[in-house]
Structure formats: C-alpha cells, structure tokens
Write a structure and sequence with these properties.
This protein has 16 helices and 22 strands. By secondary structure, it is an alpha/beta fold. It has two domains: about 270 residues, Metallo-beta-lactamase, Chain A; about 190 residues, Rossmann fold (3-Layer(aba) Sandwich). A hairpin with a 2-residue loop joins strand 9 and strand 10. It is globular, with a radius of gyration of 22 Å. The N and C termini lie close together (about 5 Å).
C-alpha cells in the first residue's frame, strides 16, 4: 500500500516536505527550507543523506524557498535523480537558489569571523553555488496539463495553482495494493483577488488531498479596501516627510505591489517620485515575469498596458532598480519621500534589515507588511508590536508606524480554500498542512462542521495510508 509521511510544514508554514512511498517507488514532494530563528537554522543543517539514498524522484509545487530551498542540500547530500517542476518554476529556481546560496555564503563569512575570534568551530555553508548548479541540472520542467511517468507506478500532472509564476497543483496517480490511487497536493493556492496570476485550477477527483492552510483561520480584506489603505499611507508619509518601507517577498508579492503602485501612480494616488526596488533577486524575478507574461492573467496585463506599458517598470516611471551594494547604501541617505521595497519579506535577512536600522526609529516613517510573517521572524515581531529590537549590532527603537495589509496575500483565504475543496465531487479525505496549528484547526472545523468535508490535522512525522 502507498504511504505518505509528513516530514515538514505540519503545524508551521515553512519547511514543506512530504515523503510518498509505494511498493515500487519513493518520491519526495517538496524540499523546503525552514525559516524562523536558530531552531529552524539547526533543522536546515540536518543531514539528508539517508533520505537522498532512497528517492526515485522529487516533485516541487513552486519555487518559493520554503518549498524548494533545501533542494541543493539534498543534492549535496547525495541525491542524483530527477526533479520535476513546471517550466516557470525551473526559471525561478535559477534565480532564487543562486541568490540563496550567495546570501548564505555572506552570512557564513560574517559568522565565521566572529567564531574565529572567539576560538569556536567554524561553520560550513548549508550548500554552495556548485550544489545549485547540480540541482538545476536535475530539473525536468513540465508544462501544465501533461501526464508524465516519474517513477515506476507513479504518474504526474501539474495544474496552475495561481499563486506565483509556475506554481502548480500536484496531481499524482499511484499504483497501490493492486489499485490505482489518486493523491492531490494543492501546493500554495492563489488568492483569486491577486493580480497577474490566473485563478487556481479546479480538480474533481482524488482519494486524498494535501491542502495548504496558511490562512485557514480567516479571509482577506477586500482588495479595494487594501488599495485605499495603501494610498492613505503613501499620502500620510508624503505629508510628514517620511519614507515607506515594504519588506519584499521577491517572487509574486513584489511584482503585485509594483503593479498596484503603477496603477496608483497612473490614477494620481501615489505622490512619491522615488520608488526603489532594492533586491537583486526581486529585480531578476520582475524581469522574468515580463519575459514570461504569456503565463500571466491577460486582463491584468491589459490594465497594466493602459497604465503605461506591459512591463512593470514602464508602468511605474519613478521606479529605480538598485542592484549593487553601493546603490543600496545610497538609499539610506534619503530621509523622506521614498518608497523602498527590499528583501527579505519576513525581515529575516537581506537588505531590508539595513533600511529598518536607518528608518525604524523615526516616527514619520511607515513599514508596510504585505505578506505572512512566520513565528520567530523579525517581521512577526514588528507585527506583534515589539518596541525595541536588536538589529545589525545596534538596539533600535520601533517608532515608525507598522501596517499590515492582508489583502495583498497571494494565498487563498479560508472561504477560497473551502470553495476549492468542495470542487471534488467524490469527497476525498483532506489533510491540512502548511499552516500554523491554530489556522489548521480553524480550517478543519469550518470544513467539517459547515461543509461536511472530512478534514484532518496530521502530526509532524505521522504516516497515512493512501
């Protein structure tokens, strides 16, 4: 019989990893990195050698690091089999994994200087650019809708999940105990109100469904209300002479924010004349979105063209790409009148931390949070109202105004998740993953009590039979 073991993102929203074992094959769904402090860092360093030896194939739903960020470590630890993903995801991995390896190398270099001075053991990087190259060579990109045999007795079809470029719903047919069993993994399902992405594909049959639950306990604010709030923040910051900082999720959220800023600029609702995209990875992804616009929503592209041009950077004339370190450092001399979009989205690393150091202590500034903030991250601390933080060797008072704009989420909200689940005609068993415990339990209750769906909340390390 086919079995599936929950190895990650079970009771949390990062570190996605699920092991499928059949009579004839072993397949890993996802190989995500964990985010959120020292405990997550230790987990990311754990050996994958035993797992790597057993696998026949790896399947990735999309390119976000919490779903694919440990793939080079799996390769470093011995995996040499195929990695199946969509064509868009393969394009993104080329950007994201290289950036992750580069950032890791710099972080390790900084940490090892301190360790050397203290006479402590030096650290090795989790993986290097050479490991990234090997991982990319193993990728076997597939178009949406095409069936592919990925291991003996296991067939795969990818469907558009509407979350980010290349995001996929993973649809698996499995030989199990003399029968064909149908396993569907939602990946991260998109928010129908998000721009640029198509709506998630609807499937009608499965025996078991792994369903994400990031926002399983709530729905998002209407997008128009969110845009009005963003416009009000921009106006207030302009009136007070402050800056607006937006921690950037390089893939998806950044491009969505740029889209809306372009529309607001076109409508005369964005007074700032300086907009900086200060993330080499986000710059690369933004240009990739422009090159792969045939995968994007046609109606949104039409609105973008009316606002000034199909390319995101042409629709927002004040936009400047800050690729180099020198360009990034120069931004911190600007005391007001700028919108600064910088990585990383949960403020757990990257250039946003430098901008926060120079801006958080000034009350005329604003920080706009546009995505989910995992427990243990600096972004979550700011959302929860921390008054002081330790950042880059300094204690910083938090006096800037902190705003959370949930309407920009690229994840489906509770009602959208339930609506998608109700599309399955044969009423499969739903296993809720990729959400904090409160979100999973709330979604399970709503699905079971209000819609008579069989929704279960598996434990980390538990195994089910499909």
């Amino acid at each position: 019989m086919a079995q599936l073991t929950f190895l990650g993102a079970t009771g949390e929203v990062t570190g996605s990893r699920y092991l499928l074992e059949t009579d004839t094959a072993t397949v890993l769904l996802e190989c995500g990195i964990r985010q959120g402090g020292a405990k997550a860092e230790r987990s990311n360093r754990s050996s994958l050698r035993k797992l790597a030896k057993t696998l026949d194939a790896v399947v990735l739903s999309h390119g976000h690091l919490d779903h694919a960020g440990l793939l080079p470590k799996l390769v470093r630890d011995g995996y040499r089999g195929p990695v199946y993903c969509s064509t868009g995801t393969r394009d993104l991995l080329d950007i994201m994994l290289r950036d992750a390896a580069f950032v890791m190398s710099k972080d390790i270099e900084w940490e090892n200087k301190k360790r050397e001075r203290a006479g402590r053991k030096l650290l090795e990087p989790i993986y290097t650019l050479d490991d990234v190259d090997e991982a990319l060579d193993l990728c076997r990109p597939l178009p949406y809708g095409r069936s592919e045999t990925i291991a003996e007795g296991v067939d795969l079809v990818l469907h558009d999940a509407g979350h980010i470029l290349g995001s996929a719903i993973v649809d698996l047919m499995i030989d199990s105990g003399g029968r064909r069993r149908h396993l569907v993994f939602s990946g991260d399902l998109g928010n129908a109100d998000s721009v640029l992405m198509n709506e998630p594909a609807r499937l009608e049959h499965a025996d078991a469904v792994l369903l994400e639950s990031t926002y399983g306990n709530r729905d998002h604010r209407p997008l128009n209300d969110t845009l009005d709030e963003l416009a009000a923040i921009l106006a207030e910051a302009d009136g007070n002479g402050g800056n607006v900082l937006i921690p950037a999720f390089a893939v998806g959220r950044t491009q969505e924010v740029l889209y809306h800023l372009g529309i607001l600029h076109h409508e005369g609702r964005m007074p700032q004349q300086k907009v900086f995209l200060d993330s080499p990875m986000a710059i690369g992804v933004t240009r990739l979105y422009d090159r792969r616009r045939h995968l994007l929503d046609a109606n949104d592209l039409e609105k973008l063209e009316e606002a000034g041009g199909l390319a995101l950077e042409r629709a927002l004339p004040p936009l400047q790409f800050s690729a180099s370190v020198e360009e990034s450092m120069a931004i911190n001399r600007i005391k007001g009148g700028a919108v600064i979009i910088a990585g990383a989205g949960m403020c757990s690393g990257g250039r946003i931390r430098h901008h926060l150091k120079y801006n958080l202590w000034r009350q005329q500034n604003h920080v706009v949070i546009v995505g989910f903030q995992a427990e243990g991250t600096l972004g979550r601390m700011l959302v929860d109202g921390v008054k002081k933080i330790r950042l880059l060797g300094s204690e910083i008072a938090v006096k800037a105004q902190i705003h959370t704009l949930g309407g920009f989420s690229a994840h489906a909200g509770q009602s959208q998740l339930i609506g998608w689940a109700e599309g399955f005609r044969n009423r499969p068993v739903f296993y809720l993953i990729h959400g904090e415990q409160s979100a999973r339990e709330a979604l399970a209750a709503a699905m079971s009590e209000g819609h008579e769906l069989d929704a279960r909340v598996p434990e980390l390390g538990s195994t089910i039979t499909i």
